[in-house]
Specification:
heterodimer; A: 800 residues; alpha+beta; 49% helix; B: 70 residues; 3 strands; globular
Chain lengths: 800, 70
């Protein structure tokens, strides 16, 4: 029990972040009321004007402002006041999202209540009047009319208040929208009934049939509200992806402060904090491992289900789940800077953006309402003039039917709902679209250009082959080479060292690096040279025995490292960049989809062709200088291709920008997210196909939605205008089975029109939600761990 | 006597901006009668005894909602 033998705890190297270093303090304010990027800028500007504020960064997705300020000249109250001056509210910290959720639930409940009251009373009235007729009850008409007026008026106001208020709001500015149409329809039906109820004499003198349509008005309102209820429910589902992301936001972290471990809300962490993450806990912010080993489940960010092994110096991401090991980490990014926060803001802005195809729908919708009003007026005048008696009654009912059936809400929903579901679907699989436009362009892609290094290949050279001479074993050769190369900093050297990880290495002395050629050292009493042909040539060592292998290596695009021991060639080690295991699958899947695949690289032709053969890519464009990559993309575009370029987002930013669809495999780095149309969170070249798939499916759904929404209006407006009246005049009376649809003489029933309108919106929503069931092709392929070597299988050692 | 004033505010971008403006004028004791983020017009009613039109314009300008031509 000797306490003295316990190692004393290592001092924490980082300065405690709570210490005001000179004069700067950091605060995070949760903000309420932001809608768009303009809101973000406004708060940053107004808060930035406060004396003493050094830096402000506002994040729309996390609804937080992160502010650095000088405590000598400003305090938190000043900052809160500035936010309020800008027209926003500062929330209590740590309020959770359940409040917002509760509001939405309340809103839905109110819609459902409005709908059911109007529908029950409306249909009840229909039923009552039917019973009156069938059973010959001979209720007093006046009494019936007046009691219905008394019952329906407050209900219409209650259930339809949303519609009337919205119609009034736009009407005051002289414009109109779908609420205008519904409100006019309801008011027409109600006004007619009101006149029939309160002024029966004047009414019949005017040649009108003394009937009431309170039930029609109620049912129209009820159907519209029922539609809105289902729409609100479905909208909740379209934003499910973002909801899931927001729910991922970590809440608590165990932070070491002043040598003690305390629990803090994750949003109070600062860069440099040392954090302990126990097994099964969520990693609170982005950072690096400083101690411990564990498998971490990153599927929520990348879609990759296999846990990723983490050891000291490895990157950790906030919101991912620690496996079975204990990890100590240092925070490197917090708040809005974390990968999760960036994903959320990216997905949100994509979901809120407008696809070009929507402009068509918008244009149509903007002239749609006035056009419908003109058609309505024309129909009204026509049937009043030439229609069957009572002409004015039918004229009014037809006008109501048109107003109700022509509601363009399906048109308005067609594109945004599909974009929301589609981009959410992509995010679930680690495929992030920057905008709806990117989603739309993804569907049109005809050619996919892959950058090589870091995209199809791992971007790290690895030993692919070992050839030995003079009876040395493979392990011997690697052991000697590694002993020398351990001292070298060259990238190829590190590949050799990595390959010999399992082999016990000897001590090297008299190490000497020969620039551009290799290195030499004494190992186990032998003089060992490791390097290229020139190094051995200059040492006077014969390399002719290796000539065949050297030629093979060159053809396969591999770099040879020669090893000589005591003046004789002992063997060769081939080093090459290794393919990602899924690269061939990615390329094959694209080709099966009929896409042209192209490899674009600055490497030598031999290397490029070797890789191309390995993955089965169609075309190779090698030895392209980085600055010429964009021009190459432009040339492909001139050939008529719609080009997707897949790169790492760092070296090939201009090419990504030039491509119709720039796909960055950077796993959420700033550069990638800013330049690319699509960011792949997973380091897997198959993401390109997934992006194209999401784009194609989304566009297919959008087209179906638009066809349905337009088609429905084109079909039903003429019917509502009375198209079937002359037809039924020709072919005889309306068949009994169609009475519910066409009434007695062939005019469209306004009640049916209301339900048809609701159904069209709902079917568009339901069609968009089908995207949630989209299966993204994701062949499991070989296990992701460990890269596959390029080149042939290892040949038998050549004889010297 | 309630006065109303219609302002054109080019900085309006979305429905959120309208809501911000509503909060700003309400803090000053005025009311937002109408606001349209497409036309970028807002109509504000206020009691000249308690708050002047200039004060409202200043408060809006402070929040970067500088009114332009009405």
């Amino acid at each position: 029990m000797s306490e003295a033998s316990l190692p004393s705890p290592a001092p924490v190297p980082e300065p405690s972040p709570k210490q005001p270093s000179g004069s700067s303090e950091h605060v995070i304010l949760p903000i309420e009321g932001m809608f768009c990027a303009a809101c973000v800028l406004r708060i940053e500007k107004v808060v930035g004007r406060v004396d003493g504020v050094q830096a402000v960064s506002v994040n729309l997705a996390s609804e937080r402002a992160s502010i650095d300020f000088d405590p000598a000249t400003a305090n938190e109250a000043d900052l809160v006041a500035a936010v309020e001056r800008a027209g926003y509210d500062v929330r209590e910290l740590n309020i959770d999202d359940s409040e917002e959720e509760a509001l939405k639930v309340a809103e839905r409940r109110s819609l459902l209540r409005s709908a059911s009251i109007a529908l029950v009373v409306g249909w009840g009235t229909v039923l009552a009047t039917q019973i009156n007729t069938w059973a010959d009850l001979n209720w007093d008409r006046d009494a019936l009319f007046i009691s219905l007026l008394v019952v329906s008026s407050p209900l219409l106001v209650f259930s339809g208040r949303g519609i009337f208020r919205a119609a009034w709001r736009v009407g005051r500015h002289g414009s109109s929208d779908m609420n205008t149409l519904i409100a006019l329809g309801v008011i027409a039906a109600y006004g007619y009934s009101l006149a029939a109820t309160v002024a029966p004499g004047a009414f019949e003198d005017a040649g009108l049939k003394r009937e009431i349509f309170y039930q029609t008005a109620l049912i129209i309102v009820g159907a519209v509200m029922l539609g809105r209820y289902f729409e609100a429910r479905a909208k909740g589902k379209t934003s499910l992806a973002i909801r899931r992301l927001l729910d991922l936001r970590p809440r608590l972290a165990r932070v070491e402060r002043d040598g003690e471990e305390i629990e803090l809300p994750a949003e109070q962490l600062v860069v440099g904090d040392l954090i302990a993450v126990r097994p099964g806990e969520q990693i609170p912010v982005d950072g690096v491992v400083i101690e411990g080993q564990s498998g971490v489940d990153e599927s929520m960010l990348t879609g990759e289900s296999l846990p990723v092994d983490k050891a000291p110096e490895d990157q950790l991401f906030g919101a991912t789940l620690n496996g079975s090991g204990l990890l100590r980490m240092r925070a490197t990014q917090v708040g809005a800077e974390t990968v999760l926060a960036r994903i959320i803001s990216l997905v949100e802005s994509a979901q809120g953006s407008k696809a070009p195809v929507q402009r068509l729908a918008d244009r149509v919708a903007s002239i749609f309402v006035p056009v419908v009003l003109i058609i309505t007026l024309a129909t009204f005048v026509l049937w009043w003039a030439v229609g069957p008696d009572p002409a004015l009654t039918f004229a009014i009912l037809n006008a109501v039917a048109i107003l109700v059936v022509a509601c363009p809400c399906a048109l308005g929903l067609a594109t945004p709902t599909a974009v929301m579901v589609g981009s959410g679907k992509g995010a679930e699989h680690g495929v992030l679209f920057r905008s709806a436009e990117a989603l739309e362009r993804a569907h049109a892609v005809t050619a996919v250009v892959y950058d090589k290094t870091g995209t199809l290949t791992a971007g790290r050279p690895a030993v692919t082959e070992v050839v030995t001479f003079g009876g040395n074993s493979r392990d011997d050769l690697l052991r000697l080479a590694t002993s020398v190369e351990r001292g070298s900093e060259h990238a190829l050297a590190s590949a050799v060292v990595a390959a010999a990880a399992e082999i016990e290495v000897a001590e090297a002395t008299d190490f000497e690096a020969v620039a551009g050629k290799g290195a030499r050292a004494q190992v186990e009493g032998c003089e060992v040279l490791v390097g290229n042909v020139r190094l051995l040539d200059e040492a006077g060592i014969a390399t002719s025995a290796a000539a065949d292998s050297l030629a093979d290596f060159a053809k396969a695009g591999q770099t040879p490292i020669l090893v000589a021991v005591d003046g004789a060639l002992a063997g060769m080690i081939a080093v090459a960049d290794t393919l990602k295991p899924s690269a061939p699958l990615a390329v094959q899947a694209l080709r099966r989809e009929g896409l042209r695949t192209i490899l674009l690289t600055g490497d030598t032709d031999a290397t490029a062709r070797a890789i191309a053969a390995e993955v089965g890519i169609d075309e190779v464009l090698s030895e392209v200088l980085p600055e010429d990559k964009a021009a190459t993309i432009a040339r492909l575009q001139a050939e008529g291709e719609v080009v997707a370029m897949v790169g790492d987002g760092i070296n090939d930013a201009p090419a990504l920008a030039m491509a119709d669809l720039g796909i960055a495999m950077g796993g959420g780095t700033d550069v990638a997210i800013e330049t690319a149309d699509v960011t792949l969170m997973r380091d897997d070249p198959r993401g390109a196909l997934q992006a194209i798939q999401v784009g194609r499916s989304t566009m297919r759904i959008i087209r179906q939605n638009l066809v349905w929404a337009f088609g429905y209006n084109i079909l039903l407006i003429p019917i509502a205008a009375g198209l079937f009246y002359p037809i039924f005049q020709e072919i005889g009376p309306v068949p009994g089975g169609l009475g519910w649809l066409f009434g007695e003489v062939g005019f469209f029933e306004p009640i049916v029109a209301a339900f048809a309108m609701t159904m069209s919106s709902l079917s568009v929503m339901a069609n968009s939600l089908r995207l949630n069931r989209l299966k993204l092709r994701d062949d499991p392929g070989p296990p992701a761990a460990g890269a596959q070597p390029v080149g042939r299988s290892i040949p038998a050692p050549a004889q010297s | 006597m309630t006065e109303t004033k219609t302002l054109h505010i080019p900085a309006i971008h979305c429905e959120g901006c309208i809501e911000s403006i509503q909060r700003i004028v309400e803090r000053k004791g005025a009311k937002l009668d109408a606001g349209d983020h497409e036309t970028k017009n807002v109509t504000i009613s206020f009691e000249p005894d308690s708050v002047s039109a200039d004060e409202l314009v200043t408060a809006l300008s402070d929040a970067d909602f500088e009114p332009g031509e009405a």
